[in-house]
Amino acid sequence: AKPGSLRWVRPLQSIVCTFGPETEEPVVVDFEIDGIRAGNVTYGHRFHAPGPITVRRFDDYVAKLEAARVVLDADRRKEIILHDARNLAFANGLDLVEDEGLLEEVSGLVEWPVVLMGEFEQDFLTIPGEVIRLTIRANQKCFVTRPQGAGEALSNRFVLVANIEANDGGKEIAYGNGKVVRARLSDALYFWKTDQSDLPDLDQLAGSAAKFDLNLKKPLDQRMARLDHLNVTFHAKLGTQGQRVKRMGRLAQELAPIVGADSALVARAAVLAKADLQTEVVGEFPELQGAMGRKYALLQGEHPSVAAAAEEHYKPQGPSDRVPTDPASIAVALADKLDTLTGFWAIDEKPTGSKDPFALRRAALGVVRILIENRIRLALTSVFAKAFANFKDGTDQSSDLLAFFHDRLKVYLRESGARHDLIDAVLSAGSRPISPLVGEMSAKPTEGGAVPPASHSVAPGQSPNDDLLQIVRRVEALGSLLETDGGKNLLAGTKRAANILAAEEKKKTAVAETVEPALFREDAEKKLYAAVNQAEKEAGQAIQNEDFSAAMLALSVLREPVDSFFEGVLVNDEDQAVRANRLALLARIRTATDQVADFSKIVG
Q1: In terms of Cα–Cα distance, which of 544, 334, 290, 291 is closest to 451?
Q2: Contacts of 129 (CB under 8 A, 6+ apart)
Q3: Cα(603)–Cα(231) distance, integer angstroms
Q4: How far is it, in rounded angstroms, from Cα 416 to Cα 480?
Q5: What is the pTM of this model?
Q6: How far apart are CA 465 and CA 410, in angstroms?
Q7: Residue boundaries of the structural domains of the chain
Q8: Which of 523, 496, 503 is nearest to 593 (CA)?
Q9: What average pLDDT does the chain have?
Q10: What pLDDT, in 10s, does the model give residues 169-197?
Q11: What percent of the chain lies above the pLDDT cut of 90?
Q12: Using one digit for the tens of pLDDT, what is the confidence trace for 368-396?
């Protein structure tokens, strides 16, 4: 567009542009950019083969560059690096600690990859492995190694990738990298030791320590006190990190009995969860937040569940990340994510389109996965109300937030293989008031017994759609029913009933408020009425017992009487009272099936 508008990571030195068929000599496409004219000349490795290379087509372009010590294909450079690094580590009795992100980065930094090995002093291995790995990765773009069969322990050797075949076999390059690594590890060792020492401003932290019931003889407690004392901002409209920790603590305490966690452990875990944000190591390597909290908690003698929660309350951080399973970790992880979500909803900072700067979709999906994969029953709207109450200037937006959770649940279930129409059918039915037949819902033990669920009461008129685990169970049961011939036939019959009823309601045809058996003229009406009464009662009782498979089975017996009704009974009878009564009977079919799903939403 104009001189200087073209930006390159490295300075543009030449442009190759040729064109022509395979059977003729290609021609140079002549043009100029920023004073550089296109041609058929390029250059190889700046040290090994700096001279000009004339090329014709892509094939000889690749071959001539490789002869000039430039591997053009990025994937092939990655393969070379990984293969040679593995072999070099193995030859030295080590295993390479593989790192796909680092491999991608390093393969883009070299033209002619040469894999070498450096080393540092054994004394540095007293530093946590994560710190060593990040130090070497961030500063020198090198891979770490571990002794073969040594588990997570690292060795004092690292693998580097040079861009040149040195005359001395790379000894000086490896030595130079080792010097820099040693200097960086010296800094890391200083941070590690400093974090276990008393803070210089300890005398100023008494007020914060009293507020959070902290023990200032313990290093991690000191860091939490300082986090509060310095009024470190979490978000301009949501207060400080200290205020956030207070909110998390209250919410985690509410959740503790629901997830089967010890209340005292949860309280301690919540108050220390963010303490490592004030450590030197996390200040240098923010990606280690949580991991360092766990290490420092164990060093000062905290309960293993408290230490685990310091790290695991951030999980899951993506679809492939594992969910926490320790009850204390679950309570704090849920509190952390729900406080974040309700907070940003309260100040109307919601995700829009492709923009989600505060990773709220990931937080909601994390809550979904924690609840579903740990088989936890939780009335979300009740928890939302408690969380929204923590924000004085915000408004309770529980309904909108629950809809957001339903969207995340749909994503989760679809990725798990569930049909989208079954999810919509269950959610649509659950959004309607529950029949009085479905009253108290008592919790059952979780599979595996790791985390006992809460009892969850659903009063008449209340929506059950805030219980994500119940939604999943309904979808599973509905899917199983529709895989059977009886389920498919029942679906056809109930959809027919719903379509007739909807058409007549649209025409404002009178529908009786209740079914009057005295108006029955056909045996098929009587049989359907009896079957609906029985199915509705049994399905309602099964739902009350949270046995959704039994509820589906109870409804499946409607198949034959529904079919018989449509075969032998004319709904639109000339007698207005009979017609209204028959339409009311169709409405009873819809009411019975709606206890488990809105069949009109199901495709097929």
Answers
A1: 334
A2: 144, 152, 153, 154
A3: 55
A4: 15
A5: 0.81
A6: 13
A7: 18-67, 74-194, 202-417, 418-604
A8: 496
A9: 89
A10: 999 999 999 999 999 999 999 999 999 99
A11: 72
A12: 999 999 999 999 999 999 999 888 766 67
Give the contacts of 99 (CB within 8 A, at least 6 positions apart).
137, 143
User: What is the reported pLDDT for 464?
Assistant: 58
CA 324 from chain center: how many Å?
Answer: 12
pLDDT of residue 432: 52
DSSP H stretches of helix in 122-274:
129-140, 171-194, 206-212, 219-229, 241-259, 263-272
Widest pairwise Cα distance in the chain: 105
Nearest-CA neighbor of 224 among 211, 238, 237? Answer: 211
How big is the CA angle at 360 (ends 357 and 361), to the nearest 5 degrees? Answer: 110
CB 119 within 8 A of CB 158: yes
- The two beta strands, 41-43 and 18-19, are unpaired
- Decide yes or no: CATH 1.10.3210 for domain 202-417: yes
| Encoded amino acid at 250, one letter | R
Please tell me the predicted confidence (pLDDT) of residue 4.
63
Q: Which residue has the tokens 């009063």?
A: 459
Give pLDDT, residue 448.
36
Q: Which positions ≥6 away from 116 have C-beta within 8 Å? A: 88, 159, 160, 161, 162, 170, 173, 174, 177
Cα end-to-end distance, the chain, whole Å: 56
**CATH for 418-604 (2.40.170, 3.30.60, 1.20.1280, 1.10.730):** 1.10.730
What 3-state class would DSSP assign to 434?
coil
Q: How far apart are CA 560 and CA 227, in angstroms?
A: 68
* DSSP-assigned letter for residue 50: -
- Cα gap 170→230, rounded to integer Å: 49
pLDDT of residue 522: 93
